[in-house]
Amino acid sequence: SCAPPQNYPLYIRSVPTENELKFHYTVHTSLDVVDEKISAMGKAMVDQRDLYLGLLYPTEDYKVYGYVTNSKVKFVMVVDSSNTALRDNEIRSMFRKLHNSYTDIMCNPFYNPGDRIHSRAFDNMVTSMMMQVC
Amino acid sequence: TVKDLPLPRFVVSKNEQESRHTALYSSDADNPASYSGVIPPPPGRIQVKKGSVSHDAVQQRTSTDQQESTSPVVSPQQSPPTSPHAWRKHNRHPSGGNNERPLAGPGPFWAPFNEAQPGSSTTNDPIWSGHSPPPHQENWVSFADTPPTSALLAMHPASVQDQTTVRTVASATTANEIRRQSSSYDDPWKITDEQRQYYVNQFKTIQPDLNGFIPGSAAKEFFTKSKLPILELSHIWELSDFDKDGALTLDEFCAAFHLVVARKNGYDLPEKLPESLMPKLIDLEDSAETGEQPGEVGYASSPAEAPPSKSPSMPSLNQTWPELNQSSEQWETFSERSSSSQTLTQFDSNIAPADPDTAIVHPVPIRMTPSKIHMQEMELKRTGSDHANPTSPLLVKPSDLPEENKMSSSVKYTAGSTVTDGYSSSDSYTSDPEQIGSTVTRQRSHSGTSPDNTAPPPPPPRPHQSHSRSSSLDMNRSFSVTPGRQQQAGVVAYPPAVPPRPQPSQGPGPHVHRPVDAEGLIAHTTSTSPQQIPEQPNFADFSQFEAFAVSGVNKDDDDEIETHSESLQVEKSSDSASSLRVAKADGRVEDKVPANVPTTAGKGTTPLAPPPKPIRRRLKSEDELRPEAEEHTQKTGVIAAVLASQPSIPRSVGKDKKAIQASIRRNKETNTVLARLNSELQQQLKDVLEERISLEVQLEQLRPFSHL
């Protein structure tokens, strides 16, 4: 899920189609956690490491990872807890890919910041990423 | 008959299509006609749809526009992507004068494009050429044009082609033009010359400098004039902005323009940028006409093919690229970024064949220390010889190339005076030659060093290399006395390679041995050079080599092996080995059987570690036996055995070979490892570049968002 500062989602995607609403809800609530972390971080937010917020909120079933860009666009990722093979580095790389794809979208002059993301390339990238972990 | 399809008709239909865009499927007859008039959308796509939609449609067309006949043609011609045909047709038609018609619709903005079309069709032919005679191609082209709008993105080359063929037939008027154009089959997405010229002109209106960029905002305005939905324009931008820099180069602009034209003509946008539209670093003309085609066949809008073709700069490589890519998926991740992946891939393939025999001197980290120890040992063993110590390392050198340490020493030795180590290699060297000349069993001397082999695992090949190279040719000559073993030559080449290093190791008087070894190595070398080289770094290897030589250089020549071993030994025993070698060398020299026979025997002994001096002597004797024990295959086993049991020289006969083989294997492994490492590093480089780009983008974004 990709959310701009205004906290409305620009892009939401989930692999298992069931319980999608639950994921949406989780993502939305996790935005609050992200905001907390952001406010606690201070001014410097240029470092990629800082951008990666890490595990935001582990629940009984899944884990939520957060990532924020320099422009306060937040990426939230919810992964199944049973998927223990996912390491932190992998999460980071996934976020980095998301970020790269997002910047590619921003490069598009036809894209207005704040629009929902319809880019097919972005979709493909996200799909491939999700396939990797699933 | 298909050919007869009225191209002209198609032209007409093209015009209609243009206005329609989307009505392709609905009215086959119309679409083709109108379509042709409009900017030739990728024929492939549409045609596919058409084909898939129904042959009936095609047939209908044929009946009406004579396109039907193409349907039968469609199937066979699947190979060339139909889209190119379509394009061609458009081009043709425009030339036929239809252009004007279709252009009417889009308005001034696109009109010029249509005009540009006429000429471009010529380039489309090449793709089809393979499939059908030009006339057919023409048909295809025309045919392709007709189904522009059908939503099928996936172009089925077959269907498209068929359709195009039908159409081409149908459009009689443009037949001539089509024929001309059909000469060059191009994929549906190929940009014809006319089109490209048109694009370039448009580019100039925005950006006079053809090498410059069109900023995103300007491009946005320009393409908005095409009246395509923003979403589609956004997608086109994503496809065409290859480097994701927010600006369009000439290539990118042409690709984008081409896509817009296609879309306006009803062709669906591909998921991935067609190869022919990839911004080519090479001259557009060339790439567009040549490189694209090969890659484009059947590609047009199929995403599958896109991945490998991300390397714009190398259209010609595109074809090979996919193969390479498949082999190295890692590159695909970078494919988005640039052609570097291509280059990398190719590089990989180049690296792959690690030929151990070719003096693979790859920078395998050779253990100097062990070798030194060996050298010392060998030298100690050899102390008997008169040669100056420095020479001994030289002896080892034969395989020096890879093992600088050893090499240097050995090289010097083998090379004779040429080595700049400072060793009195020349002295030693000379001594060796003498010995060699006298003793055919030079190999044995190597074998003497072979004991060192056991110690250092390092790729034996190196010593061999040195042989080939460093082993001073002099040695070869000197050895020529003996049965012109290649080894000798190898040995000779060997020494010169590693001048500097041996010095430290040589200290102890391995020199004496070296000369001997060098000789022996030379004898063996050529064949076993690869082995030797790896051994160089380690005197141990060298000893092994010797052992091999003793055991019988099955591989190439016993002599060679021995030379290798000797060289190896020489290197290895920079310290101790040298002594050993010396002993061996002595033995060898005496035996100096340049002939393979002796070498093998010597090699057999060499595998043993330097320590067992006495064993060396035995080896020497064995050297003589070696010739008999040339079971080369044993080498591998021998090497291992040698390493393990240096003292057991007696069985080294077979071990020498094994040692050499093992060293060869090691070298190969090292090569592959390095190749892998290289590819990994390149990937990392790509990642870093990507990150950099993203960071730059972020930076730009930050500016407007600074308030956040």
UniProtKB/TrEMBL annotation, chain A:
InterPro entries: Longin-like_dom_sf (IPR011012), Sedlin (IPR006722), TRAPPC2L (IPR044760). It holds the Pfam family Sedlin_N. Its main location: cytoplasm. GO terms for cellular component: endoplasmic reticulum; Golgi apparatus; perinuclear region of cytoplasm. It is found in: Cytoplasm, Perinuclear region; Endoplasmic reticulum; Golgi apparatus. Keywords: Cytoplasm, Endoplasmic reticulum, ER-Golgi transport, Golgi apparatus, Transport. This is Trafficking protein particle complex subunit 2-like protein. It comes from Crypturellus undulatus.
TrEMBL record, chain B:
GO terms for biological process: endocytosis; endosomal transport. InterPro entries: EF-hand-dom_pair, EF_Hand_1_Ca_BS, EF_hand_dom, EH_dom. Residues 1-138, 289-343, 381-522, 556-638 are annotated as: Disordered. Residues 228-263 form the EF-hand domain. Residues 195-279 form the EH domain. Residues 583-593, 620-634 have a biased composition (Basic and acidic residues). Residues 416-432, 486-495 have a biased composition (Low complexity). Residues 454-463, 496-507 have a biased composition (Pro residues). Keywords: Calcium, Coiled coil, Metal-binding, Phosphoprotein, Repeat. Residues 57-68, 117-126, 317-343, 436-453, 473-485, 566-579 have a biased composition (Polar residues). GO terms for cellular component: cytoplasm; plasma membrane. This is REPS1 protein. It comes from Crypturellus undulatus. The lineage of its organism: Eukaryota, Metazoa, Chordata, Craniata, Vertebrata.
